[in-house]
Amino acid sequence: MTKPRRPYGRRKHVTVVSLLLLVLAIALGPTPSSAAASDWWNPTARPAPDAQINVTGEPFTGTDSAGEVRGFVDAHNHLFSNEAFGGRLICGKVFSPQGVADALKDCPEHYPDGTLAIFDYITHGGDGRHDPVGWPTFKDWPAYDSMTHQANYYAWLERAWRGGQRVLVNDLVTNGVICSVYPFKDRSCDEMTSIRLQAKLTYQLQDYVDAMYGGPGKGWFRIVTDTAQARQVIKAGKLAVILGVETSEPFGCKQILDIPQCSKADIDKGLDELYDLGVRSMFLCHKLDNALCGVRFDEGGLGTAINVGQFLSTGTFWKTEKCKGPQHDNPIGTAPSAAEADLPAGTEVPTYDADAQCNVRGLTDLGEYAVKGMMQRKMMLEIDHMSVKATGQALDLFEAADYPGVLSSHSWMDLNWTERVYSLGGFVAQYMHGSEGFVAEAARTDALREKYGVGYGFGTDFNGVGDHPGPRGANTSNPVKYPFKSVDGGSVIDKQTTGSRTFDYNTDGGAHVGMIPDWIEDIRQVGGQDVVNDLFRGAESYLDTWGATEQHQAGVNLAKGRTATASSSEWNPFTSYQPGRAADGDDGTRWASDWSDDQSWQVDLGATHLVSRVTLDWERAYGKSYRIELSTDGTNWTTAWSTTSGDGGLDTAKFTGTPARYVRVHGLARGTDWGYSLYEVGVHSA
């Protein structure tokens, strides 16, 4: 079936709307289950009362005929963000030993009618007033457009698992700026303190669920730290939970007036701590430029408000330049914003040229160090929210190392990067748009999924203060019809009931995480079975990327320490620019040629190898047009790879494995008025 292509509205993301704040200055006595002992998916005891699951039938187990796991992957969720931002921004808990009534209650300042629900009315519009009562009536929340109420209650998550989800990435999240400006808080704004707490609570949730099933290791919620564990968990029909991190100043790496407030030692210590906590993926920057990288802007008035927050936090506004390729950051816009009232007298938000949409800030030296540190620890990098300049530089590093660990988990990557991500072996998921918008975006990249044989994911961003799918209406021509069968066909899914409220996707939309199966059924109604099939292969594709990351081995640089020669070398009385400087393993030294176009650098590998990849780390004097030439005897040369559009930085030339003892970089046209200059050349075997 041909998939329709329809435009969709760009969503508001967590800190897009968050920084608008700157505009304003098993307890309860578990009851025995009636389930038979063979019904392993039902707990032997569950707190009473509690939310219903409303799914019947055994969850699918095992692998398919190809030996692959099955199931959906939510690649971007924030289970415990109620503990972030000072602890009072997201109201309600994922679970409570005191039961559902304690877990699902509003923040105290929201009583009696939501008058002080400041963040709610900023993000939701109107006056923010709502019925704060949660259990058992839930008159006004959870709701698809209520961004400050708990959407990840554990029983709702259980319903998502029963409906076919098999992978969940729990991104530990916070933002020190939001915390500092939000008037209600009951804890420190230190980002790493919040990250540690959220990790601890994720493990406590696992214990909480285990207790319902008879003890450690028996529950459906399983935290995994490697793909072997994940595959075992999914094969058993349970939910594999991976920890990630999304925060604006990881390891304290903010910048003030472009001066980094962290060191390489801070980065190493921070990465080690996160890895020990079980974190396997993370963002390096988010919403605000930090000491590691520049961000992808937000648009219009929201972008202006965040730009104000950027200035108040760092002392610098965003700076833009013309984009060098098809990728671009979002236009900031010049929409007036009341946030400007918070700026010092005489300070104004800059205006930006419409044709200059790219952040000048890319990956800093510390950011490059952090990326390499993640590679050493076999961690996956989330590139959403990075400026296109930073993203391109990170992908350069990954391509040079043939490293697959790259993720785009919720539609904040320019889609023009998609094939580059897939060619590395990376994974892409789309934000949880409404079904029509989701199908349209999925159609744009469908051919690439077909080409690379990969599945698809979604990132719900629940508890991330972002929009969620609204209802299409009960009168639509193709509504979700209850009950319906799960994608695997083994379970029956009916309307979800919590307390005295029953949720119907047709009228309630994506009100909470338990509505994921209903949303997927709505996607099937709108876009047909093909896109749902791609989603059902998502768990396998995510694990493919993660597994390849775990198994990655740093390639041997065949050129390191070998004899190098060149057509010329620039003379300098204070330092050496001789050819060997580009093969000494030190990225602080370099070879530089004379200032003319036809120049070459070559290395003798000492023996013939099957060569398939050459990496070139250019200094500012780069080659715009050049060839990679190979020879077995140093006399007869063949061209293995060439370009006429070099742009400097880190280049990777990949080609069919070819026997060679000698490798030559033959410059044909310079990119600057200087000569050619290379920090390091890497030569790698097939």
UniProtKB/TrEMBL annotation:
Q: Which UniProt keywords apply?
A: Signal
> Region Disordered: start and end of each range?
563-587
Q: Where is the composition biased (Polar residues)?
A: 564-578
Signal sequence span is: 1-35
Concerning SUPFAM superfamilies, the annotation shows: Galactose-binding domain-like (SSF49785), Metallo-dependent hydrolases (SSF51556)
Q: Where is the F5/8 type C domain?
A: 551-686
Against InterPro entries, the record matches this protein to: FA58C, Galactose-bd-like_sf, Metal_Hydrolase
Q: What is this protein called?
A: F5/8 type C domain-containing protein
